């Protein structure tokens, strides 16, 4: 998986970006105080959403396992004049504890969680729960199940709810699509 994403960034084929940053995220962060809020992007790619959010006045942290994507994110942040408000970490979202991240007020994931195998998905949830402050919001956009080459891709909402239940309460969902595939937005509260 890392190889495929590294190749995509190398070839400039990272065409999964949603531009502009989805209103589901921008509308949610609006209620948070700018100077005191740190926002984490899990699977941030080249950090384009982190930059939009930093330009809106928030501190942002991005994590991705592709070194090229992280280098581009840092460079673009410099160019955009938001280097001070942004931090980018190269690492596996399934091993967040290794990154020693500061606590964050809100986290989001656009299209990364549904890529993980079960073991990494479980570790992701534990790492996220450790880094997100109590009552913090987690926004997730993930595929809902479909058959692809004889295997199921994505999660049913009930499954997501169950997987996150030890540390999160799903407060709202909204059906959507990601590229042309069915997907769901989740707004969760850290318990
Ligand atoms: C579909 S892209 C979405 C990127 C970005 N969130 C966006 O909306 O443009 C998925 C991203 O997750 C990253 N990724 C996948 N598995 C990962 C993992 N285990 N740890 C860290 N990053 C991962 C990929 O490198 C890629 O940048």
Largest sheet: 7 strands, mixed
**Number of helical regions:** 6
* Helix-strand sequence: HHEHEHEEHEEEHEE
Q: Span between N and C termini?
A: 31 Å
The overall strand count is 9
The CATH H-level homologous superfamily = Vaccinia Virus protein VP39
Helix share, percent: 25-40%
Strand order of the largest sheet: 3-2-1-4-5-9-8
| Rg computed from alpha carbons, rounded to a whole number of angstroms | 16 Å
Low-pLDDT residue spans:
none
CATH-assigned fold name: Rossmann fold
Secondary-structure-based class equals alpha/beta
CATH architecture: 3-Layer(aba) Sandwich
How many separate domains make up the residues? 1
Mean pLDDT: 95
CATH class: Alpha Beta
Strand content: 25-35%
The bound ligands are:
S-adenosylmethionine
Shape: globular
Secondary-structure blueprint:
Blueprint: H1 2-10, H2 23-29, E1 38-42, H3 48-55, E2 59-64, H4 67-79, E3 86-90, E4 104-110, H5 118-131, E5 132-143, E6 146-148, E7 151-153, H6 157-164, E8 168-178, E9 181-190
Parallel strand pairs: 1-2, 1-4, 2-3, 4-5
Antiparallel strand pairs: 5-9, 6-7, 8-9
The protein binds S-adenosylmethionine.
S-adenosylmethionine is lined by residues 1, 5, 16-18, 43-45, 64-66, 69, 92-94, 110-112, 115-116, 120.
């Amino acid at each position: 998986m890392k190889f495929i994403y590294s190749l995509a960034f190398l070839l400039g084929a990272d065409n999964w970006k949603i531009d502009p940053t989805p209103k589901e995220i921008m509308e949610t962060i609006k209620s948070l105080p700018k100077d005191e809020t740190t926002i984490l992007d899990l699977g941030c790619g080249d950090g384009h959403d982190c930059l939009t959010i930093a330009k809106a006045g928030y501190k942002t942290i991005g994590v991705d396992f592709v070194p090229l994507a992280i280098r581009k994110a840092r460079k673009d942040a410099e160019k955009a004049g938001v280097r001070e408000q942004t931090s980018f970490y190269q690492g596996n979202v399934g091993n967040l504890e290794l990154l020693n991240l500061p606590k964050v007020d809100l986290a989001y994931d656009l299209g990364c969680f549904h890529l993980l195998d079960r073991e990494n998905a479980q570790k992701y949830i534990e790492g996220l729960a450790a880094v997100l402050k109590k009552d913090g919001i987690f926004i997730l956009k993930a595929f809902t199940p479909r058959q692809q080459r004889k295997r199921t891709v994505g999660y049913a909402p009930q499954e997501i709810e169950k997987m996150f239940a030890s540390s999160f309460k799903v407060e709202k969902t909204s059906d959507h699509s990601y590229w042309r595939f069915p997907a769901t937005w989740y707004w969760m509260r850290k318990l």
